[in-house]
């Protein structure tokens, strides 16, 4: 019995020696780093209101989406929020989810005035008008030639739309 206890004691000492804590004083340890730094990933998001066509293409954004994003910026002056991408034809929920991982709102858009009497359907959609509102505007313009002021405009759109856009609407000109 004494032999078994002695063997267990020797084995325990041997085991402790093999599995001792690493010696950090000899500088023989490796640092394992993640292939993606989370801070860098956030910094890699592109400002959708400023990023160039070339930068978007370099980040593997499809050319068709790049041209639509540039067009949207040129027409409206930029994006207030990333969800505005859904106003662009061809960008639905799934595509939006992918693109929202690449873009951010890093700067305020320089919103452009909208001439309500000359705007086409796509432009109205880009500014956030619903399909019903666009139809009402078209119908009104067909009957009356032009929308003359905020009072007429307010009757054609939802209160929320009116409040968001009232300062951006220009009433110059006649039919489209």
Automatic annotation (TrEMBL):
It comes from Fusobacterium canifelinum. This is ComEA family DNA-binding protein. One of its GO terms (biological process) is protein secretion by the type II secretion system. One of its GO terms (molecular function) is DNA binding. Keywords: DNA-binding, Signal. Residues 1-20 form the signal peptide. It comes from the Bacteria. One of its GO terms (cellular component) is type II protein secretion system complex.
């Amino acid at each position: 019995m004494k032999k078994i206890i002695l063997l267990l004691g020797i084995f325990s000492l041997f085991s402790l020696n093999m599995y001792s804590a690493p010696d950090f004083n000899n500088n023989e340890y490796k640092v394992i780093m993640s292939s993606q730094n989370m801070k860098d990933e956030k910094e890699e998001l592109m400002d959708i209101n400023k990023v160039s066509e070339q930068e978007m293409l370099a980040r593997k954004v499809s050319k068709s989406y790049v041209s639509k994003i540039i067009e949207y910026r040129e027409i409206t002056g930029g994006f207030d929020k990333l969800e505005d991408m859904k106003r662009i034809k061809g960008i639905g929920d799934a595509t939006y989810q992918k693109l929202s991982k690449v873009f951010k709102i890093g700067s305020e858009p320089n919103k452009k005035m909208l001439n309500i009497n000359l705007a086409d359907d796509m432009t109205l959609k880009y500014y956030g008008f619903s399909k019903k509102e666009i139809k009402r505007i078209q119908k009104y313009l067909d009957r009356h030639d032009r929308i003359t002021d905020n009072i007429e405009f307010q009757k054609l759109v939802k209160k929320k739309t009116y409040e968001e856009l009232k300062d951006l609407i220009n009433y110059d000109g006649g039919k489209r």
